[in-house]
Amino acid sequence: MGGLAIIRKIYHQITAGFIKNMMPRTLFGRSILIVVLPILLLQILVTYIFYERHWDDVARRLAQGVAGDVAAVISLRDRFPGETAEADILNIARGQMRLAVSIDPQARLPEGSDKQQNYGFLESHLVNALKESLPARSFNISTNKKLESVILLIQLPDGVLQVIVRDKRLFSTTTYIFVMWMVAISLVLLGVALLFLRNQMRPIRQLATAAEQFGKGQFVDDFKPSGAQEIRSASRAFHVMKHRILRQITQRTEMLAGVSHDLRTPLTRMKLQLAMMPGDDESKASLEGDVADMEKMVEGYLAFARGQEAETVEETDVTELFQDIVMNARRQGTAVSLETPKSLHAEIRPSSFKRCITNLINNAARYAKEIWITVKATNSEIVILIDDDGPGIPKNKRKDVFRPFFRLDPSRNTETGGSGLGMTIARDVIHGHGGQISLGEAPAGGLRIEIRLPL
After folding, report:
1. What pTM was estimated for this model as a whole?
2. Are 339 and 430 part of one and the same domain?
3. Structural domain containing residue 446
């Protein structure tokens, strides 16, 4: 029983995966499927019922009518013998019954001709009708495609009766007309549905594009909500959210401008007072170090809170930007290797992105002897790898380093541990570009920083 349950589970997983792969990926494609599938199933069902019931009944009744006319001609000929009566009966059949009839005297049908089984749809109905109307007669049926007619050969006691019946008497053309009208109307309705669906998808794509651009930190103009009521509500909610976030960023920037002024003014006075103090004792040097540390921490806090909101997004040569960053790092004595494409352009905030990468390189240089930077691009994103040969970061601490003011070094020495905002600022800059940043282990045993930016 356990094996059967496992087989069922595997079967359901395979079936679900197959259906999932067969389903369209886009909302427009799935909406088309929702519209097309019922129409297609309805057409198949209606056509099956029509062919199975209506067309079959019509064909059978037409065949019975033809068989009845032929039986009537034979009955009249048997009842009124004689050449004159026979000629009158045949003329009536030609004029009133629209049957092309003739008699071949003394002719005989081959033995077993009525046992033939290779009859088509229409011929099979005619065979059954003739068997009911002429149970004691042998007959043969053939089709003349060129004349679009059916030829009946019926064995009589004194010869063979030949009856030529046009297809129109055995076949109803309304069948094709019905199917054609059904298909044509379905195609028209499908075209109208596709037009409306395309108009409904447009505001959804517009909203998705605006959300993606805003998620990358780009400026997004307000657009007029359109489409269905739910889509309009989502668009209005997006506008409210966007303005609330922008207002929060503006308020934070204005607040920090005031905090910057309020903090730097007393720090400047303290530096002046320390400079005017006589002597060069140990207490004065300690106070000067504390003031310098406070100034560095204030600058770090302001850099963290300021972010990159004041800078506009512009198309930048990423290769040239990294070459400039690496050149500046080498001037400071950092051993950095760079591997990058010859030309790579992306829409970023160049100044904030440059500060972010520079900050990551400076952090790595604090603990490592050599740094390797690799930049590569795919069709959808830019991948940046920053590897070093330092001690790395333990796995259980890699998420914590992105928290504000978290420092691996428990001491408050800013020379070894910094202010605890470097990785937080880097994460905010990368997230502001719509990207992701993660930490791992470098091939040299140190820390690997992986950055992915969407193109």
Report:
1. 0.53
2. yes
3. 312-454
Whether 313 contacts 347, CB under 8 Å: yes
Residue 23: inside a domain:
no
pLDDT tens figures, 349-363:
888 888 889 889 988
Quote the CA–CA distance of 433 and 427 in Å, as a whole number: 10
> What does the DSSP assignment read for 125-177?
HHHHHHHHH-TT--EEEEEETTTTEEEEEEEETTEEEEEEEEGGGT--THHHH
Pair 40, 170 in one domain:
yes
β-pairing, 100-105 vs 335-339, is unpaired
The whole-angstrom separation of Cα 434 and Cα 449 is 17
In a domain, 447, yes or no: yes
E strands, 318-444, are: 335-339, 345-348, 370-377, 381-388, 436-441
- The single-letter code of the amino acid at 3 is G
- CA–CA separation, 219 vs 363, rounded Å? 31
291 and 323 belong to one structural domain? no
Structure tokens at 193: 């549905």
Greater pLDDT, 77 or 452: 452
Residues 40 and 171 placed together within one structural domain of the fold: yes
Pair (330, 445) in one structural domain:
yes
Lowest mean pLDDT among 114-128, 262-276, 408-422: 408-422
Helix (H) or strand (E) holding 9: helix 2-22
Gap between the Cα atoms of 125 and 119, Å rounded: 9
Token reading at 437: 């940043």
Question: Looking at the structure, do residues 318 and 447 belong to the same domain, yes or no?
Answer: yes
> SS3 of 159, please?
strand
Task: Annotate 291-313 with DSSP letters as a single string.
Answer: HHHHHHHHHHHHHHHHTTTTSPP
Question: Three-state SS for 84?
Answer: helix
